[in-house]
Amino acid sequence: MSEAITQSRIPVLEMRNISKTFASTKALTNVSLTAFAGEVHALMGENGAGKSTLMKVLSGAYVADQGGTVLVEGKPIVAGDPIKAKANGISVIYQELSLAPNLTVAQNMFLGAEPSNWGVVDKAAARARAEPILKQLGINFGPSQLVATLSLGERQMVEIARALTTNAKIIVMDEPTTSLTSRETDRLFEVIAGLKARGIAIIYISHRMEEIYALADRVSVLRDSAYVGTLERAELSAEKLVSMMVGRDLSSFYKKEHGAPHQAARTVMSVRDMADGYRVHGCSFDAKAGEVLGIAGLVGSGRTELARLVFGADRKMSGSVTLEGRELAIAGPRDAMDAGIAYLTEDRKGLGLFLDMTINENINIGIIGRDASRGGILNFAAAKERATRAIKSLSIRTPSASINVGALSGGNQQKALIARLLETKPKVIILDEPTRGVDVGAKSEIYRIIDELAGSGIAVVVISSDLPEIIGIADRVLVMREGRIAGEVLASSDQPISQEAIMAFSTGSASKVA
Q1: Tens-place pLDDT, residues 451-470
Q2: Which of 336, 318, 296, 315 is nearest to 485 (CA)?
Q3: Residues 224 and 292 in one domain
Q4: Whole-angstrom distance, CA of residue 267 vs CA of residue 287
Q5: What CATH number is attached to the domain comprising 168?
Q6: What pLDDT is recorded for position 7?
Q7: Pick from 405, 411, 406: which is nearest to 437 by CA?
Q8: Residue 365 lies in a domain
Q9: What is the rounded CA–CA span in Å between residue 239 and residue 222?
Q10: Is residue 509 very low, low, confident or very high in pLDDT (cuts 50, 70, 90)?
């Protein structure tokens, strides 16, 4: 922890006994949080644990129930007033950035508080005031640049710069690296270190353990809308954090019940010489009944592109797909689905779900025009029963199947999408980054679903960038590099799948199958 904190334990922020109820739902129950100047205080918990609600109380977007107070530098602030909260030095940078892309960097930084001269916005003054702030952050673009021309990482820096225009004492960052490249993430970490050195308290919300280890001085955990506890940096461990967040041990995460299939197990799908002439080159592999086949590789290795070619989402230049001994003619995703191949996209919001439609509609939309409907007209009673059954079997947390799927947490959205795929009765299911952007509790549930699918005899193909995940759930792993399958990593009775073997193929340092 920083020297400033050790010299003085007077907190810059105190949230005391914060409760919040929406109708009959208890979103927060007597939650307290303390942050000190010059520290990074991580806030963790499953989706739905209450993190966002707590931060909205801090920002003034919500008013806490009677009895809760928020103090900045020992003084209570006016509840439910975002302007007063900002004036007291509280700034929140949400996961969905709130910039105006058609305005310049300087205009965004001072939006709503523009310097003026006789009632006219003084653009030159805004640029002049913006320049030293951008310089402090080490930003290499100017105040006159349009935000629309910036990368996501650069836009994140504009949000931070905007916070500094208000002399922020407390900056909340909600999942700030979700859409950033590794280089942009490194740059953000450098900026956070600089803010910390200036005595600003950072409340950092993230599901990514490696970020917490890299940044946090302390970590507070919420579970089921209540405060669980706080760990100092020296106490941090994955086991402790997971246990606090989900109430169970990390060792249960990757437990496989289905058992690895025998090498002679029935081959369900064979892919041969699949290529698009650009990103994928001559890839061949088999997927067996009852196995979890992992596909690993570095970003850009061609994993997703190969899956999309198999599913017919992209046009192939060459290659064939054989399912249960019959070669398929796949001209598009509908052909693949009709044959028994399901594909879960890595972009569930952009390409998978219909966010403004209900859970019921999302689960049932894939079977319209199939046996479950007549003449393209859905049997609504059967659809409701189907959605209710899926919600129960996949543990989708929702009060009703009739709410919009966009209102669900990331993990529950993912499970709703998986439920839709399962209604097509697939023989092969390809899951592309199935746990991206979901909390540890939802990850555990998705692993359980994967294990049950394999146990039922379905061939499950999982693409993941998370090596511990792929090692934990896969029976064998194909490793891609530069659009080709570089090797296969198998587990033996005395040697589990190793991260080193996967990385050797990923980087080209392995010359033979492990």
Answers
A1: 999 999 999 999 998 888 88
A2: 296
A3: no
A4: 6
A5: 3.40.50.300
A6: 41
A7: 411
A8: no
A9: 16
A10: low
pLDDT band at residue 5 under the 50/70/90 scheme: very low
Tell me the backbone φ, ψ of residue 202, rounded to 5 degrees: -110, 120
Instruction: Please tell me the distance from the alpha carbon of residue 259 to that of residue 455, in angstroms, as a whole number.
Output: 8
Task: Using DSSP bridges, classify how beta strands 267-275 and 318-323 pair: parallel, antiparallel or unpaired.
Answer: antiparallel
Read off the pLDDT band of 377 (50, 70, 90): low
Buried b (16+ CB within 10 A) or exposed e, 222-250: bbebbbbebbebeebeeeebbebbbeeeb
Q: What are phi and psi of 319, to 5 degrees?
A: 120, 165
Residue ranges with strand state E in 334-457? 341-344, 373-374, 377-378, 428-432
Claim to verify: residue 340 and residue 445 sit in the same structural domain: yes
Dig out the tokens for 390 from the structure.
Answer: 């899926």
- 45, 112: one domain: yes
The verdict on 99 and 65 lying in the same domain is yes
Domain for residue 311, yes or no? yes
- Domain end call among 182, 216, 248: 248
Place of tokens 């697939």: 426
- Euclidean distance between CA atoms 463 and 75, whole angstroms: 50
Whether the CB-CB separation of 490 and 497 falls below 8 Å is answered with: yes
Say which residue, 426 or 153, is predicted with more confidence: 426
The count of domains in the chain is: 2
- CB environment 192-213: b (16+ within 10 A), e (fewer): beebbeeebbbbbbbbebebbe
**Whether residue 55 is found in the same domain as residue 111:** yes
Confidence bin at 290 (pLDDT 50/70/90): very high
pLDDT in tens, 49-61: 889 899 999 999 9
Q: What is the pTM of this model?
A: 0.60
Spatial separation of the C-alpha atoms in residues 58 and 388, rounded to whole Å: 37
Greater pLDDT, 26 or 259: 26
Q: Identity (one letter) of the amino acid at 270?
A: S
For residue 215, give the 3-state DSSP assignment. helix
In order, the DSSP letters of 423-490 are TT--SEEEEESTTTT--HHHHHHHHHHHHHHHHTT-EEEEE-S-HHHHHHH-SEEEEEETTEEEEEEE
Both tokens of 371, joined, read: 């046996």
Note whether residue 323 is domain-resident.
Answer: yes
In 63-184, which ranges are E strands? 69-72, 75-76, 90-93, 116-117, 120-121, 170-174
Q: What is the pLDDT of residues 174-200, one digit of tens each?
A: 888 877 777 888 888 998 999 999 999
| Domain coverage including residue 115 | 3-248
Closest CA relative to residue 201, chosen from 497, 460, 26, 2:
2
Domain contains 225: yes
Residues 91 and 165 in one domain: yes
72 and 170 together in one domain? yes
User: Using 50, 70 and 90 to split pLDDT, how confident is the model at 140?
Assistant: confident
Q: Which of 344, 312, 342 is nearest to 329 (CA)?
A: 312
Do residues 205 and 340 share a domain? no
Indicate the residue among 219, 248, 277 that finishes a domain. 248
